[in-house]
Amino acid sequence: MKGKELLEKAIKMDQHDELASFRDEFYIREKQIYLDGNSLGLLSKRAEKETIKALNSWKEYGIDGWTEGDNPWFTLSESLGEKSAPLIGAYKDEVIVTGSITTNLHQMIASFYHPDDSKNEILADELNFPSDLYAIQSQLELKGYDPQVYLKKIPSEDNQTILLDRIKSSISEKTALILLPSVLYRSGQLLPIKEIVEYAHQFSAVVGFDLAHSIGAVPHNLHKWNVDFAVWCNYKYVNSGPGGTGGLFVHQRHHGKMPGLKGWFGSAKDKQFDMEHSFSPAADAGAYQIGTPHILSSAPLIGSLSIFEEAGIHRLRKKSLQQTDYLLQLIDTLLADHHFKIVTPLKHTERGGHIALEHSAAASICKALKDQMIIPDFRSPNLIRLAPAPLYTTFEELFYSMLELEKIMETKAYEQYQNSRNIIA
Questions:
Q1: Which of 106, 116, 354, 364 is most buried as measured by Cβ atoms within 10 A of its Cβ?
Q2: Is the domain of 279 the same as that of 396?
Q3: How does 82-110 read in b/e, with b if 16+ C-beta sit within 10 Å?
Q4: Is 129 assigned to a binding site?
Q5: pTM listed for this prediction
């Protein structure tokens, strides 16, 4: 299929896109093509409106905003957890919006890692996001275990993906806890969560997942799959804004257990303001909150999650796969002679929401694209990530972004840029 036919295909797919109207919900810079929604999603008008409403509640009610207004702050984390639950296949009492990925990970590991002489290892993968590994290292050290010995890393065959057989062979009777990403942040590989959990539970290992690169892009069934816990941020595909409040999932079978890190917002609601020095945890996932909710950082989620409720995670996944399929077709057709290597798995069951390309000049290519108002994402040392967001990216935008990339490569325009990352990649 040639360029003209590919453009016609894009126009036709946009005309038949049942999610097309949601693009008008977002603030999109004129002439910009935004392909970095897996790092920071764009602002929606609903998120803006709800943030302004939260400010007005503070202005109007002062301290009474905790119990008054359309979204009382005292129960906001729980109500947002209920709205988040359909995105991950959970019951409403299994989800709470709170903290950040790393603070929530510290809470989960502190709560679920109980080593003894025979079961004391934590298993992660060698491609995991650094902050997740920092949390594991810290929690091991706090319990007197050397991370060099007790943190085991699943090796990668190709430095981009992790094989299920490798994961299974790394699990042993010594494995106490496993922490893996649902989608690998570099390559976009989607791991088989259900199969991993089923196998790991045969060894009585606790299994948790970091959903940062899948929530809002890929449907999950965490309750049905018996995942023990999960954490995520909401500022990528869920579009909650920079530093937006994260979330966590704890399976119902663990409810009633004492959290490893106690904090007053983890209290049972009817006991919290008794101000007793003995901790009475909430009976659900709310027990794993630590500090006072970040109201102004949570407010955008009220609007954003209402969009997801209307769009539906399964329709979003369908369009996401169509867009990444089309992107792969464009890459094969327009960029075949320019030494790009696709490192994202091609199978739908193994692919998250973005496409990753390896190239020796990746950093300078990203800079050249940005100067043409096309926003990709660079990951050191040589990776370009392209993330269509089904709520606001069009197929035609994908066509023109790859057409521009073809031009940049043919003219060698990228050579005028330094091939190194900026302060923020």
A1: 354
A2: no
A3: bbbbbbbbbebbbbbbbbbbbbbbbbbbb
A4: yes
A5: 0.96
User: Is 295 known to sit in a ligand binding site?
Assistant: no
Residue 96 labelled as part of a binding site: no
Q: What is the pLDDT of residues 156-182, one digit of tens each?
A: 999 999 999 999 999 999 999 999 999
Q: Any idea what the CATH number is for the domain that residue 26 is in?
A: 3.90.1150.10
Residue finishing a domain among 277, 292, 310: 310
Closest C-alpha among 35, 47, 9 to residue 393? 35
Kindly report, residue by residue over 173-206, the tens digit of the pLDDT.
Answer: 999 999 999 999 999 999 999 999 999 999 999 9
101 marked as binding residue: yes
Indicate whether 424 belongs to any domain. no
288 marked among binding-site residues: no
pLDDT at 153 over 70: yes
CB 112, CB 175: distance < 8 Å: no
Instruction: Establish whether 175 is an annotated binding residue.
Output: no
**DSSP letters of 222-291?**
TTTTT--EEEE-SSSTT---TT---EEEE-GGGTTSPPSS--GGGB-TTTGGG--SS--B-SSGGGG--S
Both tokens of residue 315? 């329709």
Q: Is the Cβ–Cβ distance between 234 and 302 less than 8 Å?
A: no
C-alpha span between 343 and 127 (Å, rounded): 13
Task: Pick the last residue of a domain from 282, 310, 338.
Answer: 310
Question: Residue 421's pLDDT band (boundaries 50, 70, 90)?
Answer: confident
b/e 240-276 (16+ beta carbons within 10 angstroms → b): bbeebbbbbbbbeebbeeebbeebebbbeeeeeeeee
> Would you say 210 is a known binding-site residue?
yes
For residue 132, say whether it is annotated as part of any ligand binding site: yes
CA–CA dist 277, 282 (Å, integer): 15
Specify whether 186 is located in the same domain as 211. yes
Q: Are residues 200 and 66 in the same domain?
A: yes
171 is in an annotated binding site: no
For 261-292, write each residue's pLDDT tens digit: 999 999 999 988 888 999 999 999 999 999 99
Mark whether 385 and 326 lie in a shared domain. yes
